[in-house]
Amino acid sequence: MIITLVAGARPNFMKVAPIIKSIDKARNDGNNISYRLIHTGQHYDKALSDTFFEELAIPKPDANLEVGSGSQAGQTAQIMIRFEEELVRHPTDVVLVVGDVNSTMACSIVAKKLGTQLVHVEAGIRSFDMGMPEEINRMVTDVLSDHFFTTSEIANNNLLASGMTKDRIHFVGNTMIDTLLSQINHFKKPGFWDTHNLKEKEFIILTLHRPSNVDNVNTLREIILEINNASQGRPVIFPVHPRTNSNLQLIKNDLGSVVPVTPMGYLEFMYLVRSTCCAITDSGGLQEETTVLGVPCITLRKNSERPETYLIGTNELLPYIAGLKPLMNRIYSGQWKKGSIPELWDGKTAARIVDKLIKIYS
């Protein structure tokens, strides 16, 4: 069995790394399974991309489609064109996609139009917010997929409610957490730790990239001002996503305690997440990682496709930034909920995925 693995953006790297390791182990154990790794190039910062592959011990891709940036439609179209050429040259038994980025949807469409079996890892998650491009990617991918590997019973129920049959749904856990747990002893202090005089649990980590939060300069300014007001002078470390940088430059006089830094590799960033007193974010993956690490997380969104992180984890949704200060005061006073780790987020998800693939397709 040949599996074509698709990775296109930073979140994908953390999700495919443990799957690759589990396929290698299964092959070494005598199973007829191999893979071809395709990097679509949707995440086009070569330095960061190379860093992630090195840190997570991901082998060099068999092909890099080098799609780069563009509009939603333009980028999706380029991925489809180049991935179709790849599959025609290198036929496969199964295409495996992860997550919900443009590469996930684009490669799924191509796979099914070529009559190839399609597997979706992290299937069934829903925000029920059609204003999110990722939600459209998830829905299209799930409609096309032959088998679904899910992170929670909530995701299972979403798939069942949409008419998918139970025999195609496989609750396996979360590969992002496989990577987190396998790398936790390798987290490393970023070089600016001492420069900014950071101390354990005495700073805040901030990530923002969603259009609703960063594309309007006035909205971004309001968020930054409220974070400053709630930080009580604590440094707020802000790795700046490329889509955010131009607007951030327009409000640089309002930054206050907010410290912009360039995007980091996985190991340095996760060192900050483990060490922070609180994460403020609009990212999906960070909600999961903070839940497993027991770190308070405030998500600046009206909804989340990962409800387990706020139902049983350490995450809270904050639809309106004006409500930030009371939440932060709960953290400072030690009154934040303790949270617990969702079922099967145990570091063994990739092994379960590969075992199931061998049973299905061998």
Descriptive notes:
Helix 1 crosses helix 7 (175-183) and helix 10 (217-231) runs parallel beside helix 15. This protein has 362 residues and is an alpha/beta fold. It contains 16 helices and 13 strands. The chain folds into two domains: 2-174 and 345-361, Glycogen Phosphorylase B (Rossmann fold, 3-Layer(aba) Sandwich), CATH 3.40.50; 185-332, Glycogen Phosphorylase B (Rossmann fold), CATH 3.40.50.2000. The protein is globular, with a radius of gyration of 20 Å.
Salient structural properties:
single chain; 362 residues; alpha/beta; Rossmann fold; 2 domains; seven-stranded parallel sheet; 16 helices; 46% helix
Classified in CATH, the superfamily of the largest domain is: Glycogen Phosphorylase B
Give the distance, in angstroms, between the N- and C-terminal Cα atoms: 7 Å
The CATH topology of the largest domain comes to Rossmann fold
Strand order of the largest sheet: 3-2-1-4-5-6-7
Main beta sheet: 7 strands, parallel
**Gyration radius, in Å:** 20 Å
**Overall average residue pLDDT:** 95
Number of strands: 13
Q: Identify the CATH class of the largest domain.
A: Alpha Beta
Count of individual domains: 2
Beta-strand portion reads 5-15%
Helix content: 40-55%
> How many distinct helices?
16
Globular, elongated, flat, extended or rod-shaped: what is the shape?
Answer: globular
Which regions contain 5 or more consecutive residues with pLDDT less than 50?
Answer: none
Protein structure class: alpha/beta
The SSE order reads: EHEHEHEHEHEHEHHEHHEHEHEHEHEHH
